[in-house]
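Researcher: Going back to the complex we discussed earlier. I've cleaned up the inputs and rechecked each line, so this should be the final set. Can you rerun the prediction on the complete assembly and write out the structure?
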Amino acid sequence: MSLLFILFFPLVIGAILLVAKPKQAFAISLIASIIELVATILVLKDAATAENGLVFTKPWIEEAGISFSLWVDGVNGILIGLCALMVPFIVATTANSDKANNSQYQGLMLAMQTALMGAFLAKDAFLFYFFFEASLLPIYFLAAIYGGENKNAITFKFFVYTLFGSLFLLIGLIYVYLVTPGSHSSDIETLYQTATMLPERIQGNLFLAFFIAFAIKMPIFPFHTWQPDTYTVAPTQATMLLSGIMLKMGTYGLIRLVLPMFPLGIITWGNTAIILSVIGIIYGSVIAIQQKDAKRLLAYSSFAHVGLMSAGILSQSLEGIQGALYQMLSHGINIVGLFFIIEIIERRTKSREIAQLGGITQYSYVLTVAFVILSLGSVALPLTNGFIGEFLLLKSVFDHDMIIGIVAGISIILGAVYTLRLIQKTMFGNFSRITKDFEDLSAAEKWVLIPLCAFVILGGVYPTWILNFTEPGVQALVSLLK
Amino acid sequence: MNYQPQDFLPIFVQLAAALAFIVLVMVLTHALGPKRHSAKKDDSFECGIESIGDARTPISVKYFLVAILFVLFDLEIVFMYPWAVNFKQLAWNGFYEMIVFMGLLLAGFIYVIKKGILTWEK
Amino acid sequence: MTAIIALSLFGISNLFLGFWFPRKTIQLVTLLFLVVSMALTVSDWNHELLWFGNMFRTTNTSINFSLIIQLAAFFVVAFSKAFGQDDEHTHPAEYYAIMLFSVVGAILMVSFDHMIVLFVGLEILSVAMYVLTGSDKRNLRSNEAAIKYFLMGSFTTGFLLFGITLVYGATRSFYISNIGTILTTTAPESMPSFLFIGVLLIIVGLLFKVSAAPFHFWTPDVYEGAPTIFTMFMSTIVKTASFAALFQLVSGIFGSLYTVWVLPVYFISMLTLVVGNISAVYQQSVKRMLAFSSISHAGYLILTVSSKQISTTSSILYYSLSYTLATVVAFAVLILVSEYQSARVEKPENFSSFEGLAKNNPGLALCFSISMLSLAGIPLTAGFWGKFFIFSDTFSRNIIYPVILAILMSAVGIYYYFKGIIAVYLKAGEIEKIEVPTLFKMALWACTLGTIILGIYPSLVKSVF
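Model: Rerun complete. Updated structure for the full complex:
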């Protein structure tokens, strides 16, 4: 029942916001997301102590053997935690802006949370697919209604592109589902058993179908063309949802579905996929270095980070998956914080052009410190949360193939280049016409940034409790691969 | 009673003969007949009176309505012949069915009258 | 079975009610009639029986199809507003009566056990549709549409009849069950070759009615020319009935001739998907877009028909239901918007006249968007599961490439359905609050809710089908 609560509670509140349009949308939405966070923490605590994780199953489409089943184990627990943790912050970033009491905006964000939670919680493959696609609707409307310049064309491309990709996932899922014995079942664990029995050629094709779907979602080179535009044009909160949480649906799909289902497929195509991911890392970083728009720069940096996660996952090692899970969490925290900082700057200066900014540190000390901490997390400096994940990921890629590992390692240097350049150009130096008299952070803004910075440090100093939480689930998963 | 397609051959022969006759006669008349063209001769024949205007003038839709209704009711009377011939064999069952049939017809007739389709001047 | 007698009598009484009552009363009475006939249809549930000299069979499948047809008719009647300017010259009672008669034809088509009943049912349905298509008498487009529909329709009816004759010639029976036994017990090699031509001709005759490419050329013009309310009728009821008939024939009695018809049917379904979806992309008019969308949905359904699985019946039923619910809403909103815009813009049925609908009519905008989402097959709507069941059926027969094409095409579909949503929500435009009659509003919300409920919990009806 508690699983049902954390799944549907945001949707219920979101629906109320959308229909009733109350005046205090911000307060309702913030309180709801905090309740959701508390409930999720309680669920995760249960899951950590429970023997085989928590499972909830109800028949859904009995005739077809499709059930409404949810579970929490080490693998998805961390993502559920991330989703529940970040949404209150994302909601809080709207404080005092024109979107704060826009009940439609808040309602769509909460609806989005349910869709994301559903995709992470689902134990049934079709339920996963259902939420995987359903999450597109609220995010599409968020981006398309509140987006910036040229929003219609860009968000539309985003929608069609990602939906097109997930249709491949649908074909693949249906194929595996029809192989299951008897009157068919789409339970993920049943699919593991049947899919691994398939001959190599078919597994290879299915791997491609699944990989394309997830690669578009993440995105992986060369399926990324929707991403920078969408991230740039979407309102900041939608970008946070997209990069902070929704992107992880792709990596989660790789871990949860692709790895255990198609071991033979990975033998055929895994290396290609890893190389594509690594190309994405380098490509994203190089382009990020040249960006003039700060938000676009972050979009490309996100593209680069996710490439490393994907490569680590596909290396199929315990470290790789652990690292990817840890990195998903830290990337979610860091990128939300960074996007918020850009939003803060944009609110005051009406500009995101790196060249036009500078010297903000003279006016806002706290903002500078927060920016530096979050950026260092993103660059993966030791003692920040990014380090643990990137280290594990790089190690796994390195173990898999040394040359690829070395190439991927370059990404850390490139990451440092564009991130530090961003900080230097925006924060330090002389103030410009528009950054003159930059208003210091408001209390609400501090309340968002300071905890996020605390998470960055905390995650870097004391990673073991999260790694311990994920380990049993990942162990079980890795043992399936052997 | 197992017909093969070739059993239908005589019918095709007959069809072909009929067609051939028509074609033959048409060709023959054209070939043999004298051809004299004049304005009067090429005009359509209207009992010797000079034709005026186009034959395709619009006719009041009322003519059509009456004509169609006539055909409808006329054809439905045809159904009564086989019934009358087999009256005894069909017995009461046939009688009831005919009553239903006539009842529907009558309903239609009343509808037509009430709708004012048969009133010429409106 | 009693339903068709009742509906015929209701239709006749409708004609007479027109003499005394205004349109609104007749509309309500017609709705009542349909409810009664639905109840009568349900009363045959689980009684598999033959009627009328063994020519008419009621099975649970046929009852389900009849119910979907009558439900569609119910909504169409509920969505019907004034037909034209004044009731005196537009004969509303007659339109309702003709609708009821054509529902009788549709029910005959879904429960025939004799080829002639199929033919008679098809003709009852079609002749009624020819009349309704041309019912906007003073509109040139409507007249053109009616003539086009009539000429093409009667021509392909000839195909169907010829096919029936050839099949009769080969099997010496009109009875579906007899033909089925003969075909399964005889080796195909010992059958006369004209049987196969007959089978294909019957399939072609029915494919015309569902507007499958390359027999679809009439569809856009007829859909556009006909008054929108009758386009709604055409795209739901005629489709469902023809598909039920096609399915019963093709995978029922012609099932043993699978190898004969399967390739042409594949080819046609793929062609239909491509033609329907690609042409829909280029449409400026919502009505024409919906016409092409109905062609493309025919493509998906033909794909299932060819899969010949046990679950196919329920998939087709589910798809028909979800398609019906979504389509009637789309047309209903189109009626309201085009009526509002007809005095204001030159082309009231274009996408551009939907722009800015969400601002003052959030309810209408929501209904329209949900119906578009359902037609596009996005999760949370009935259309998603419809597509899902169809793909899953087709896949289990190892039909790979047509399914991949279908999936590509449904991605194309998203493009043009979203044009509607974008126009409604994201484009700026001036549309004031549109007055919606209460009955209309109730029907609109009922359909929309139905779409969502079926999208969340498909078992609700899937367990019955």
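Model: Worth noting: Chain A is about 75% helix and 5% strand.
Researcher: Good, that matches what I expected from the previous run.
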